[in-house]
């Protein structure tokens, strides 16, 4: 079993190396293809960043933005991906996702890590408080350590929950239609336009309805967009 | 006796009117009417109100019902008179001459008759009037005729000013773009049912939507009492010149009583509640108002069309930011005026800042949006180290002072590190703030090290929740264990433990192969435990208490007598119990320990 695992890791590393050599030789389509194959074993923020980078070099800024956003969704602390999005925003007018307090949290600690820390602290605090009831000595000290641990742990769990974009009830997506997307007031082609979104704009799909999706444009306006103009950030997810 | 006779006479004098015979008069509201018209027949009985009448006239071709009943009591020169008025509503069904026979009525227990009447019904159209019953008690619901079609009337017809509108404009001279608060007042002397919302419209003016809930007051003009409904709104002129003020209007149905409308049939109309429904469009009269263009002289270069009276203030959040993070400058323009036509404040001294297009929102402080505050939020990123934000400048025209003003907010102290690289772009998302991502880098490099992640967050992993469930189970099990231990350590737990030990000893006494000293020691221990459970200080006291109660405990003395011997002999007893004695002891111990 251990041998199999090592072999798998070695194969994975080899695939990554091939993609890098294709990228270095400026064969971007091959680099993208091999990096995508590499990601099939398990997703990684760095892998999506690499695909985004190859797309950017190839000139496909919409796909580049989509993959950078995927990388940030997987690892909000990956500065290379955030820098790349800022670069696209500056050079290609691809809209940036809005800055929220959760970004601050995510950039410091990954939500998964926060959840684990919260889990450990909550139960340590709970067991500590329980044992303190039985302790003949140092009961006050045990309580003084356990109660804050419990509270901090609970806060960490909640923060991990709230700051994790993957936990949201909405479906994160991006406009990937080359000519952008028109946001309408109703799911009908003749409805009034709310705003025109350029390609690459990150949105949250609140409620998909057939060919239409009700979207939230980064906590701002809401409206209806045709789903064929959007791509979910999480591969394989559908509207 | 004289006093008695005087009292009799006085009583007779006051009672005389009541003793007089009641008089019955009958009157028709019209002698000749077209088919379908409504006629009233009134029966008046003076002198009493104790009258019983038939519920209808009983004439073929005439729909009729007793629909009204009124009582009048008056005292004139010390004399009290009473009278009752009873109304029949008649609707002819066909043309012809109808004889309404004398009706048999009961007056104070005596039979009486009304005067017979004649009604000529002609072919033709009934007058457009409707009957609104005055809701007399006991009126059969089916007797209420349905309303007739309505007439169309304007406010300026012969009915006079029963309803009219006024638009109160406080100024005779205004400026283009100036927001002028006005009041739309609607006066109704009679009940009015609106069929559409009131409006204020006028060429060359825009008007705000009228305030939702009008103010209702009473006002008497001449001899007429009006219900007055006042709506607040504001108008803004969009071009200069001599203009007509906008018109306040409302459409609906005015219900005018028949007697007031025609000047005839007042007695019946008032009594029966006959009304005519008039479909009306009530409009205010226009006045001339002078609209002046905004002066060109003295107009600031950054004037964006704000007309009114305003103040400006600014705050910034956060006050301390890292490189690349945005500061949001919040500029609040408060006052009264045309907030709709207000442009963004201009930032001055903004060198070293990269501002983004501001978002704005308006918070009104009155019903019509004349007063309020407009909040402009401008995100900006420092391009070089900054200690204060730019100031915001805003120009407006004050129509009262008839001159332009330019006001400026103070710069806000902040601590902002510089962005080390090129500028981020403006977000295309409305209301979205720029991301506080690090500065963009040139190009990028392929990453070779990676951390495998999952699209499924840890909080959605089943394993994570199984782990939590395990911890929760352990926690609950620990609590349960602690509770059990605590229970065992308590008096009940201790007693239960003693009982268990005692029962075990008692059962062991049944074994014949026990050594004599062991048997005696176990029996003594069982007795001692039972003594403790029953509140005795020891086995001797316990046995004595049993003897006192009359129990046969002679067998127990065989054991008690050897207690000291067992204790001090080291187990070598001088005599031994035979099997029968042992069984007797075991039996007695079992019984006393029950």
Residues in helix, % of chain A: 55-70%
Which percent range describes the beta-strand content of chain A? Answer: 5-15%
Net shape of chain B = flat
Radius of gyration of chain B from the CA trace? 53 Å
Largest interface: A-B, 67 and 47 residues
Major sheet of chain B, described briefly? Answer: 6 strands, mixed
Rg measurement of chain A, Å: 22 Å
Q: Quickly give the structural class of chain B.
A: alpha+beta
Helix tally of chain A equals: 8
Mean pLDDT of chain A: 84
Assign an overall shape of chain A: globular
Oligomer class: heterodimer
Please describe the biggest sheet of chain A, giving its number of strands, its sense, and whether it closes into a barrel: 5 strands, antiparallel
Instruction: Let me know the average pLDDT of chain B.
Output: 77
Helix-strand sequence of chain A: HHHHHHHHEEEEEEE
Strand content of chain B: 35-45%
* Low-confidence residue ranges of chain A: 1-15
How many strands appear in the DSSP assignment of chain A? 7
Low-confidence stretches of chain B at least 5 residues in length (pLDDT < 50)? 1-20, 126-159, 261-268, 420-442
What does this protein structure show overall?
With 239 residues, chain A is of the alpha+beta class. Chain A has helices at 2-24, 28-39, 45-58, 61-74, 79-92, 101-108, 111-134, 139-163; strands spanning 171-175, 181-184, 193-197, 202-209, 212-216, 222-226, 230-232. In chain A, 56% of the residues lie in helices and 15% in strands. In chain A, the strands form 2 sheets. In chain A, strands 6-5-4-1-7 form a 5-stranded antiparallel beta sheet. Chain B is α+β, with helices and mostly antiparallel strands. In chain B, 22% of the residues lie in helices and 37% in strands. In chain B, strand 33 (391-398) and strand 34 (403-408) form a beta hairpin. The longest helix of chain B is centred in the C-terminal third of the chain and has 28 residues, at 462-489. Mean pLDDT of chain B is 77; it is low at 1-20, 126-159, 261-268 and 420-442. Classes of the chains: A alpha+beta (239), B alpha+beta (594). The interface between A and B is large, with 67 and 47 residues.
